[in-house]
Amino acid sequence: MLGKKKILDLIGFVLRQSRADQTEVLVTCFTSYLTRYANNYIHQNVGEENLSITIRTVIGKRVGIASTNHSAKDKLTETLSNALAITKLQPENPDFRTLPFAGKKDYRSAPTFFPSTAAFSPQARADAIRLVTEVAREAGVKSYGSFTTGTSQIGIGNSLGIMVYNQASDAYCNVVMMGESSTGYAETASRDVRDIKPVKCAQVARDKLLASRDPIDIPAGRYTVILEPPAVSEMLDFLNYLGFGAKTYQEGRSFLKGKLGSKIADERVTIIDDAYSKRGFAFPFDFEGMPRKRIKLVEDGVARDLAYDSLTAFKEGKESTGHALAQPNYMGPVAVNLVMKGGESSLEQMIKSTPKGILVTRFHYTNTVEPMKTIITGMTRDGTFLVENGSVARGVKNLRFTQSLLEALNSIVDISRKTALVGGGAGYGGRFAVGSIVPAMKIDNFNFSSATQF
Description:
Layout: H1 4-17, E1 22-38, E2 41-59, E3 62-68, H2 73-89, H3 115-118, H4 122-139, E4 142-158, E5 163-178, E6 183-190, H5 198-211, E7 221-227, H6 229-243, H7 246-250, E8 271-273, E9 295-299, E10 302-303, H8 310-315, E11 338-340, H9 347-352, E12 356-370, E13 375-388, E14 391-395, E15 399-404, H10 405-409, E16 412-423, E17 435-451
Parallel strand pairs: 7-12
Antiparallel strand pairs: 1-2, 1-4, 2-3, 4-5, 5-6, 7-17, 8-9, 8-11, 9-10, 12-13, 13-14, 13-15, 15-17, 16-17
């Protein structure tokens, strides 16, 4: 890890050398550790330390980028030269106005780094996984999953006065329990590894497996569903990518086109992007160095705002909300700290009040069918249950769903008071943790389009 002084020195060196009209330098370095296990045994333990320096140069309305993994000054000079050469070959971007400029910025502090996570050793991960496998062995089943920890340092500076740095840590653990006819799942995530409870995860996954043994067939159709937080998080992630960003809106691809200020969901639905929540993966600025703003995407069921980076903001004469992704970025701005407001119920109350329904642990293999109608399709996984007469009756074989997200959000029966952080599963690639804080939800008329044999 380079440290703050070294990172800011590298940024300053490139900015001084550049002859472009405007220049931006993004430095990211991270250490990432991953321990994976299967069949109740650890089968992989890996560690990675890496550095990336991305230089974006602007000449008029032409913009180009180049990257390197070297921090030596001659390599930085070479990468800067490549960025300038690429920039000169680019067509002009009529939407480009300027890189973000320094001024009075509201950079709020955020709890991002915990020494306990940075110091967490391979032996500590192995010890935690041993406890998970003991839970599985005692139940006569097999456990699968991973435990990952890491730290990252990010520095961003440009020739217009932006110069910011931050250090972050994160930890993520997931558990799949597998038997002859059923599976169970649980996960936990935090910036502070001391919050990770692998044994509790293992017990939850085990209990789901045992309760869903010998699952029965049920026909496809529309059911009342009770969705646990991992399933709700999947729905919100797709809603996010289908329309909460300003680029999709400006290009007419967002389901929110023409609906800002209008009711799109049940009045109990409030979804914000909050990069300062202590329960989530807080981070104070985006990948252009702009402070992240807390934005209301949906408030009391009404579509309110969008996520902006500098390019999309300047196009509308607005300010960036601090949601730029790292370059090269073809997606535009994305909200990465979603928080859905809890309700007045609980998972237990939802089950108790349901004459007949389906309890879903999580979805997987989810894809978009009709983006403007927010229709997605996917499968249930690792714990799908029939609810009858107010109790969980038994496991059912997995089902495929094909469902409009907006239709689902307008068919809500209850929302749990308790919310949970669902992490994005860090551990592969560069280290930048994301996750959503979501409740469980009970929804009527959820469309299961086909059944499976497992």
